[in-house]
Amino acid sequence: MDELIARVTTVTGLDAATAQTAIGHILAFLQKEGPATEVAQLLATMPGSETAVAASNADEGGGGLMGMLGGMMGGGVMALGQKLMAAGVPMGQMQPLGSELFAYGREKAGEDVMGPIVGAIPGLNQFV
């Protein structure tokens, strides 16, 4: 996970803590919305990903205004965007963040894993 965080901070200018939180939110989203087999294969190639996902899922319980907004938007990629903004990721850095995470995923897990994930989630392709 340290290698991915370093790559994300370099590309986006985010600090390491924000990058780690954002990565956790994205991976938790993929786990919830994506094809289970491929997402499990992706997470298996990323040491520390389970901890990042668990931290993201622990944050879910609070709800609040951002949870309410995500609920009104029906979830999906829009709700993920709201979570990322709440975590301190500016709108303009979401696409570079997603691109770097998915490039890393392709390097570690391969296109056979990443292709089905991207294809299964409506709207995700605009961030990768």
* Order of H and E elements: HHHHHHHH
Q: What is the count of helical runs?
A: 8
SSE-based structural type: mainly alpha
Task: Please give the number of β-strands.
Answer: 0
| Rounded Rg | 13 Å
How many structural domains in the coordinates?
1
Question: β content, as a range?
Answer: under 5%
Largest sheet: none
Low-confidence stretches: 62-73
What does this structure look like?
The chain is mainly α. The protein has one domain. The chain is 77% helix and 0% strand. Helix 5 packs antiparallel against helix 6. About 9% of the residues have low confidence.
Please tag this protein with its features.
single chain; mainly alpha; 128 residues
What's this model, at a glance?
With 128 residues, the chain is mostly helical. It is built from eight helices and no strands.
Please give the structural blueprint:
Blueprint: H1 2-12, H2 16-33, H3 36-44, H4 49-60, H5 64-72, H6 76-86, H7 91-109, H8 111-120
Helix pairs in contact: 1-2, 1-7, 2-3, 2-4, 2-6, 3-8, 5-6, 7-8
